[in-house]
Structures
1.
Amino acid sequence: MPKKPSTSVSPAARLKARHRVIRDAQPEALRLRIHRALSWLARAERETTDHDARFIFLWIAFNAAYASEFGFEQREREQTRGFIARLLRLDGEHRLHAALFDQFTGPIRTLIDNKFVFEPFWRALREHDGSGAWEASFAKAKRLALDAAMANDTATLLSIVLDRLYVLRNQLIHGGATWGGTTNRAQLRDGTAILGTLVPLVIELMLAGTDDEDWGGVAFPVV
């Protein structure tokens, strides 16, 4: 007997329907952020077997949600941390906390234990630094993540996780990995799983926020 097609609504479709109801009353910058983020989330959902493509589309969706106008003196990671702080202020039900800490023994912990998404490891390799400094830094970062988990410190743990995902993003976007390769599958699967949970939740928190929440101007407005 043929299998019936799934009738479940995807996160992107559910959020898009919700956005359609309220978008006309939103500030233009916020409306544009959510519209763009949802378009990339929907594209990511179509990738069920290609983890490389799915991760890239999810990262673009996340980037569309948070990126704003900034000068050369402001690094992307600094901007991300400011975005996290705004999200946590909106997250009265602690949904980001639940998403992170429910998964800490799975993909998130595996990601934090993976030196291949730790930028100082690659820097030491490039600079032929045999001092072992990156290993000490790696151990310290893992302790910090564990302490954050024990203390229910959502901001710190989320910042560490996004730092790791940012390294993975760089590997893919800058051609530092082979499409469909075998050397980075573990971190790619974990990264995709984590972003697949975080991105819809981020968009949902933005939808639930008040219209006077200042998300800043978008970096590339429609002109």
2.
Amino acid sequence: MLKKYLLIFFLTLIFAAGISGVLGCRKRPAGEISVHFIDVGQGDAILIKTPEGDALIDSGEFSARDKLFGYLREEGVTGLRLLVATHPHSDHIGNMAEVVEKLPVTNVMMPRVVHTTKTFEMFLDALEAKNLKIKAPVAGDTFGLAGDSALSFTVLAPVSEEYDDLNNYSVVLKMVYGNVTFLFMGDAERISENEILAAGGRGLRADVLKLGHHGSSSSSSREFLDAVLPRCAVISCGAGNDYGHPHAETLRALDERGITVYRTDLDGTIVMTTDGVSVQVQLEK
């Protein structure tokens, strides 16, 4: 399949917030990292490959099992330093149990919320069988993939402890590598976005924004987009999905702000590679 290659140069320096906790002073990047927004249909699965190890945020629906594990094999993934289940909806954790069973996993992050589905129970059983402990996200915490990391993650949400909608429990992560910042929203909706904004944003500016809830109009408010001011946005959704994702209102808001949009339903798997200064975008289709 033909692949398209694009290059985005970030001409203005974006300085990350001070790094604390296990990282100490953040190292200068050495080499490249890549972020893979895997086309798993109507769901999320994001692979992050770094010199310090790999991370996986969500795993798509079980129906995307072959696509996910085939892709991980192609990319030579033999273990994960970090596994993040943003929230327990099946389009995000559908393959988590098998990921844990097949791959050595060092750290697991998931919000403090339970779900009554078999998919969720299987995930918990797999974690217990491997004696893996769950790290609950705490807004404001910063960490890396290794003790002396050039890459940092900051937890922005969930901010509260109780929500009516599981989507708002989504783990929201800001990832910084050099002068390049990614923001991963899970399925966080406007309630979560407003809480992040009210908390001061914790340095919300980002170069790449993975939109919340597959580009739904219930996420990506204009106020939030204005605070993040991304150069490009990624929408993970299935072609011809029953939900109408991404919604026209969201696409209009992105267009009004001149934000370049990449979509897994149109572009296939989207790979962004960065050395901490520039970002190269590779499209599957």
3.
Amino acid sequence: MSLPILVINPNSNEEVTAAIDRALDPLRSNDAPPINCITLKDGPFGIESERDVDVAAFCVGAAVEEKANNASALVIACYSDPGLRAAREITPKPVFGIAETGLATAIMLGGRIGVISILEKSVDRHLNYARALGLEGRIVGDLPVNLTVAELANEASVTSRMLDVGRQLRNEHNANVIVLGCAGMARYRQRMEEELEIPVIDPTQAAVAAALSAIRLDYPGRRHVNGA
């Protein structure tokens, strides 16, 4: 049996992990590696600041050191991609960050990318990361719903706010594809896509799909200079 794809939720919110796990059901099949989601108990409850990102990055590195040998690929399920570069140094297995993969997917599905962030202070962090990836020019807007990660779980009140921000990105910023800028937003993707009638990307789904492709096509992970 193939080793599983390990999806790491770097925050300690079990409800977020459960929502991520449910959103990945369409990617599960009998002829594919299992997809296992884990919560990092020592991570912040929500990753909402640079300090949270730094703490989460340390926790991700420790988890990768402990668990990578028992995984076929790893996904870091936080839109700040905490610890992604370090994880790729720790293991030769393929490692995917959801922001990096989500934005790459958005380029293929539209090109004029709108991003929905959780908080106003998340926007600059996202844009700085997009700039580091060389993708800042593809983002036509990044707007917050001004909710914490914990508050995203209240579907009754959050759905309308997500749709309002999505319409603003589509109608006022001319976005033709939207990326959900938090793994905790996964539950809203399908409803938003139906209402907005443009692609809406759950970046965790995108990253796991990329991991499945890498495994099926037998792509190697990043190797050390000496080939080890």
